Amino acid sequence: MRWEDFRRSGNVEDRRGLGGGAAGGLGIGTVVILGLISWALGIDPRVLIGGAEIVTGGRSGYEQGQPTGPTGAPSDETGQFIAAVLGDTEDRWKEIFQQAGNTYRPPQLVMFSGMTRSACGQAQAAMGPFYCPSDQRIYLDTAFFRDLEQRFGGCSGKACRFAQAYVITHEVGHHVQNLLGVLPKVQQAQQGQDRRSGNQLQVRVELQADCFAGVWANRAQAKWSFIEPGDVEAALRTAAAIGDDRLQKQGQGYVVPDAFTHGSSEQRVRWFTAGLKNGAVSACNTFGEPAA
Question: What is the pLDDT of residue 111?
Answer without folding.
Answer: 96
